[in-house]
Amino acid sequence: MVLISESREWKALADHVTAVKQTHLKDLLQDDARTDALVRETEGVYMDFSRQNATPDTLKLLLDLAQAADVPGKVAAMFRGEHINSTEDRAVLHAALRSPRDAVMEDRGQNVVPEVWGVLDKIKAFSDRVRGGEVKGVTGKALTNVVSIGIGGSALGPLFVHTALSTEPQAMAQAAGRQLVFLANVDPVDAVRALHSLDPETTLVVIVSKTFTTAETMLNARTARAWLTERLGAEAVSKHMIAVSTNLKAVAEFGLNPENAFGFWDWVGGRFSVSSAVGMVPLSLQYGFPIMERFLQGMHAMDTHFRTAPLQDNLPALLGLLNVWNTTFLGRSTTAILPYQQALQHFAPHIQQLSMESNGKGVAIDGTPLPFETGEIDFGEPGTNGQHSFYQLIHQGRVIPAEFIGVVASQQDVYLQGEKVSSHEELMCNFFAQPDALACGKDAAALRAEGVPEHLVSHKTFTGNRPSLSILLPELNAYTLGQLLSLYEHRIATSGFVWGINSFDQWGVELGKVLANKVRAKVAEARTDNRPLSTADGFNSSTVRLLNRFLES
Ligand code: F6P
């Protein structure tokens, strides 16, 4: 395979780096025509990337690179259901999960949309009956609490959406009197945290696992089953436990009623599964199906934009291209995701998995080792909290491209003696100020003019020229949340398409799982035989010492 780094377009961008390094954002931002060329909007989602270390020439070269990498062809292949996840021989059709009833999207010649809507209709009917009190627990009480057990892609996305909706007025009204709790970690502390305040009589446990074999989830599922049956008897399993999985055989083997199982398909990657039953079951139970249908509609609107808009106006594609520019060409390996919205507090952790599990690869899609690095390290925290934590480093330490996300109208307001407190205005002032502080900085001359003592001038200098981009949403509701999530899902796919990798497999998580199995077996053996472990058990001397220290306790 000819790697994209061999292309003329790649080399043109590599050459262009020198020219861009000679520019400074404080000067570039004086150019109104440039700003005009680096702002886009679709359906209320406004994106300003004028604070990237980039010029309109950079954009042109990136668009040429996208053509050379056949991004449009790869996007079309994805929506056509081609098996672009070639190492697992699977289609990548998560966009079908939010397509309208009459859409046609095919895997192996079969339209998958009717099946998608079959499950959605089942989720709607079930969540309506639970929420309406028609489905009851073994003691005849309504099921008002839901514990969603799952990890990674089976937890992070639904948790992010739940947190974002939990303060949105319409969703909040729908959730009155209900509780949704997530249990992911195999740490017993997490099980105690999730379950200790719940009443089993009013609790419905949803086991969410694509494979239904993930060790952590299955152990937590058994813990929850014991928690229910010890208090309510064996009958509780069929009335208080349901499942979401692609492995319906394993669901039945676990002892669950297949009627209480909600399926999805191998063409949905775990980290892309929020819009499948993985997210739709727990979230519809909490907020009702109509709210979650709005979420799907928002995702579909952005999917359609991604599929149809020309690259130069295509928000997810532009985000993905700029990501390649920052990480691969400018060598900035980290991205800060900075929502100025407390409701988006779990957005960065979700994007962390979505991006890092998708694009943290060392070989091209055909297995050829790559001569450049892919993927970026994503981290983040809502503003303004982050400002009091790690912003020192991004202002005066390392250069970390930042993605600011703001919302025009707040989900909530607070009042003091009848007067609206200006908290949202305050929050947004910071959202507008930080990108300019990063971009423009403050030089020694300005500091001296302010009378800053000479020995402090270098400490107080901000070099500036630190890139960011700003995304502004009109408000944060189920629909715009769907737009935002789809924007990032496709941003990540676009970067992967340019790098020429498979963004849809995750072989890198396997080795640790295999080694954990070996450790589990040997620890059990050592405990049974009451003996210490040694290198003869197949561990190196460091691991032997660590394990024996653990076994001694
Ligand atoms: O961490 C690896 C992974 O396979 C993720 O891709 C996935 O989202 C997670 O584990 C959970 O898997 P499952 O839904 O099969 O339990």
The outline comes out as: globular
Secondary structure: number of strands: 15
Count of alpha/pi helices: 23
Distance between the termini: 54 Å
Main β-sheet description? 6 strands, mixed
What does this structure look like?
The strands form four sheets. A six-stranded mixed β-sheet has the order 1-2-15-12-10-11, with helices on both faces. It has a five-stranded parallel β-sheet with strand order 6-5-7-8-9, sandwiched between helices. The mean pLDDT is 97. Helix 16 (347-359) links the parallel strand 10 and strand 11. The longest helix is centred in the last third of the chain and has 22 residues, at 478-499. Helix content is 49%, strand content 12%. Helix 6 (113-131) packs parallel to helix 13 and helix 7 (156-165) runs antiparallel to helix 16 (347-359). With 553 residues, it is α/β, with parallel strands linked by helices. It is globular. The structure holds 6-O-phosphono-beta-D-fructofuranose. 6-O-phosphono-beta-D-fructofuranose binds at residues 150-154, 209-211, 214, 217, 270-271, 357, 506, 509.
